């Protein structure tokens, strides 16, 4: 989906605006500085068109850190958003920080909209005119709190939103899109450099060859792949505080552009909550997943045994993801990455014909019927695959299925179809 990123200083009302656009109170408004909100990307819809709304303001720095934090927001927005919405507090007017952000945003080859927030009634509108001085064009007066002006602004934004998302474009036959993810120092950039090697196809300079300068086309295994947000891998955001937040913002935004994620883990260190958080972001995004265990050259027998136990304990929910044990330094087993990516994408693309799927369901319910609950036994009447990328199934039932039974259906689906490297979704519709 196309990405709209919201950028602005703390307390200008970004979260309120996110809530207003989503039409629900999901992004919590926090007045305390230093608060990290977990969610950064939301599925949004306006006038029948879907897009991803990225809230870059999840981490609110103290006064000393404002410039760096807002610069980091702008950097992510510039690299990864299709349209940027820059929010200014019209009661305060343009500050030096705002002007700094504008300078950064100017470099972006992206449509930028300027929202003058906190214009709660018509009498305050003249305040917003002062923001012409920022040089971002017309300031749009809005009140995130009351909703005033937001609909009109969204109409204008949607008109600038690309029709075809990066993923949809791929369906037209472009190179497949890969995100390399992982916490700092696991070896992402080493992997990228080693894998690309001499074969790097330098096409970024040519106008129009890639949509984003931060994406790079690289030939691997005889095929061209688009690696998304390679700029994010190569450059480091130098922030004292909030670095984790911006890393996770970048991860979420990169996933939006990718079809498959390679999550890189460092075998010399225990699997951490940060690693698991990144894997969760991939699962949430519904993208295909490959796990790359890197620095294999440094693994001794003791650590190896321990690692196996850790994998069993911490990664039991992603046993379906292909694993490659590699060394970005020596090049060990790097050639296994491409088949793993291909396998994951093939699973992600899979469509099971309705006839076959119902034969599968008939066999499953015959051999293992749903247990009777309170004198009733919910039955599966019919099923169909509603979507691929990832494979998404809908079961029409006569009652709610136990979570345990739903997991059983998922497990059987994997046993029969594999779906290695792809999450699968099983939804339910109860027919009264
Ligand atoms: P990134 O932050 O994830 O991009 O990590 P880097 O690619 O910058 O790597 C972090 C450090 O780990 C660097 O000093 C690399 O040389 C080192 N490194 C990366 N991959 C390997 C590997 O496979 N084996 C060994 N021994 N060192 C590695």
Layout: helices, strands, pairs:
Layout: E1 3-8, H1 14-22, E2 41-46, E3 49-55, H2 66-80, E4 83-89, H3 96-106, E5 112-117, H4 125-129, E6 139-141, H5 150-160, H6 166-171, E7 176-181, H7 188-196, E8 216-220, E9 223-228, H8 230-234, H9 243-257, E10 260-266, H10 273-285, E11 288-294, H11 301-314, E12 323-325, H12 337-349, H13 354-367, E13 380-387, E14 392-397, H14 403-417, E15 425-430
Parallel strand pairs: 1-3, 1-4, 4-5, 5-6, 7-9, 7-10, 10-11, 11-12, 14-15
Antiparallel strand pairs: 2-3, 8-9, 13-14
This protein binds guanosine-5'-diphosphate.
Care to describe what's here?
- GTP 2 binds at residues 182-189, 229-233, 294-297.
- Belongs to the TRAFAC class TrmE-Era-EngA-EngB-Septin-like GTPase superfamily. EngA (Der) GTPase family.
- Keywords: GTP-binding, Nucleotide-binding, Repeat, Ribosome biogenesis.
- Residues 2-165, 176-349 form the EngA-type G domain.
- This protein has helices at residues 14-22, 66-80, 96-106, 125-129, 150-160, 166-171, 188-196, 230-234, 243-257, 273-285, 301-314, 337-349, 354-367, 403-417, and strands spanning 3-8, 41-46, 49-55, 83-89, 112-117, 139-141, 176-181, 216-220, 223-228, 260-266, 288-294, 323-325, 380-387, 392-397, 425-430.
- The protein has 432 residues and is of the alpha/beta class.
- It has 3 domains: 3-160, P-loop containing nucleotide triphosphate hydrolases (Rossmann fold); 167-348, Rossmann fold (3-Layer(aba) Sandwich), CATH 3.40.50; 354-430, GMP Synthetase, Chain A, domain 3, CATH 3.30.300.
- Helix 14 links the parallel strand 14 and strand 15 (425-430).
- Helix 2 packs parallel to helix 3 (96-106), helix 2 runs parallel beside helix 9 and helix 9 packs parallel to helix 10.
- It is globular and about 70 Å long.
- The two termini are 34 Å apart.
- Guanosine-5'-diphosphate binds next to helix 7.
- Residues 182, 184-190, 233, 294-295, 297-298, 327-329 line the site of guanosine-5'-diphosphate.
């Amino acid at each position: 989906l196309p990405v709209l990123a919201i950028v602005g200083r703390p307390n200008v009302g970004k979260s309120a605006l996110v809530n207003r656009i989503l039409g629900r109170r999901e992004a919590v408004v926090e007045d305390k500085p230093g608060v990290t909100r977990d969610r950064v990307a939301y599925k949004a819809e306006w006038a029948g068109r879907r897009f991803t709304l990225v809230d870059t303001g999840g981490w609110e720095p103290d006064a000393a850190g404002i410039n760096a934090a807002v610069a980091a927001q702008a950097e992510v927005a510039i690299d990864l958003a299709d349209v940027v919405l820059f929010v200014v507090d019209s009661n305060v007017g343009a500050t030096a920080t705002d002007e700094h952000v504008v300078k950064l945003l100017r470099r972006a080859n992206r449509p930028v909209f300027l929202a003058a927030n906190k214009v709660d009634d018509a009498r305050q509108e003249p305040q917003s005119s002062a923001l012409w001085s920022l040089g971002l064009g017309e300031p749009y007066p809005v009140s995130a709190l009351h909703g005033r002006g937001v609909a009109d602004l969204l109409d204008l934004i949607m008109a600038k939103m690309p029709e075809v998302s990066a993923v949809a474009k791929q369906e037209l036959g472009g190179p497949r899109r890969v995100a390399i993810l992982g916490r700092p120092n696991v070896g992402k950039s080493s992997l990228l450099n080693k894998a690309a090697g001499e074969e790097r196809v330098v096409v970024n300079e040519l106008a129009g060859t890639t949509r984003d300068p931060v994406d790079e086309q690289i030939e691997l295994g005889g095929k061209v792949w688009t690696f998304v947000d390679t700029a994010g891998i190569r450059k480091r955001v130098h922030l004292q505080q909030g670095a984790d937040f911006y890393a996770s913002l970048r991860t979420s935004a990169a996933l939006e552009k990718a079809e498959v994620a390679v999550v890189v883990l460092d075998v010399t260190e225990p699997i951490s909550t940060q690693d698991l958080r990144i894997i969760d972001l991939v699962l949430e995004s519904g993208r295909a997943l490959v796990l790359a265990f890197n620095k294999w050259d440094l693994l001794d027998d003791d650590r190896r045994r321990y690692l196996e136990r850790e994998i069993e304990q911490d990664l039991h929910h992603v046993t379906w993801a292909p694993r490659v044990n590699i060394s970005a330094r020596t090049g060990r087993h790097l050639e296994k990455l491409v088949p793993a990516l291909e396998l994951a994408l093939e699973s992600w693309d899979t469509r099971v014909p309705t006839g076959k799927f119902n034969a599968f369901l008939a066999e499953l319910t015959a051999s293992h019927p749903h247990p009777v609950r309170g004198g009733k036994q919910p039955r599966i009447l019919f099923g169909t695959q509603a979507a691929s990328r990832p494979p998404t199934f809908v079961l029409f039932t006569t009652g709610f299925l136990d979570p345990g039974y739903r997991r059983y259906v998922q497990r059987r689906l994997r046993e029969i179809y594999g779906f290695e490297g792809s999450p699968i979704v099983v939804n339910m519709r109860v027919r009264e």
